[in-house]
């Protein structure tokens, strides 16, 4: 999936994460994380964002995530939504996405 513009999903409220996805002219994935639980879960958050991007066939993007203790399902949902907004995709294959967690 091609990232065409910058897009945001989520908030900076407690137990949420704000994910911003933007095009990356360097043609790679770059993830910047600011998290209140960085020491405990930073590696897991980055891994989950990267896995979600891979499943969506995103090969070039700048991702900025501001985390306030979000659960994995919220991190995945916010990343998914931001990517779809940034790629200007209007339709989702929910059955495929739902199978990721099966």
Assigned CATH class: Alpha Beta
How would you classify the helix and strand content by structural class? Answer: alpha+beta
What is the makeup of the main sheet?
A: 4 strands, mixed
Strand elements, count: 4
Helix content: 25-40%
Oligomeric state of the chains in view: single chain
Nearest-integer average pLDDT = 92
Uncertain residue ranges: none
- The number of domains is 1
CATH architecture: 2-Layer Sandwich
Sequence of strands across the biggest β-sheet: 1-2-4-3
What is the molecular shape?
globular
Radius of gyration: 13 Å
Count of helical segments? Answer: 3
Distance from N terminus to C terminus (CA atoms, Å) equals: 23 Å
InterPro entries: CitD, Mal_deCO2ase/Cit_lyase_ACP
Organism: Enterococcus saigonensis
Family: Belongs to the CitD family.
Subunit structure: Oligomer with a subunit composition of (alpha,beta,gamma)6.
Can you give a write-up of this model?
The modification O-(phosphoribosyl dephospho-coenzyme A)serine is found at residue 14. This protein has 102 residues and is α+β, with helices and mostly antiparallel strands. The chain has one domain (7-87): Ribosomal Protein S5, domain 2, CATH 3.30.230.10. Helices cover 38% and strands 23% of the residues. The protein is globular and about 30 Å long. It starts with 6 loop residues before the first strand and ends with a helix.
């Amino acid at each position: 999936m091609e990232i065409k513009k910058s897009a945001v999903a989520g908030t900076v409220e407690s137990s949420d994460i704000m994910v911003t996805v933007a095009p990356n002219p360097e043609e790679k994935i770059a993830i910047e994380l600011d998290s209140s639980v960085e020491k405990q879960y930073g590696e897991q958050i980055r891994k989950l964002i990267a896995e979600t991007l891979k499943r969506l066939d995103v090969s070039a993007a700048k991702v900025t995530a501001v985390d306030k203790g979000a659960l994995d399902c919220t991190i995945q949902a916010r990343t998914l939504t931001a990517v779809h907004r940034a790629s200007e995709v209007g339709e989702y294959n929910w059955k495929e996405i739902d199978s990721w967690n099966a």
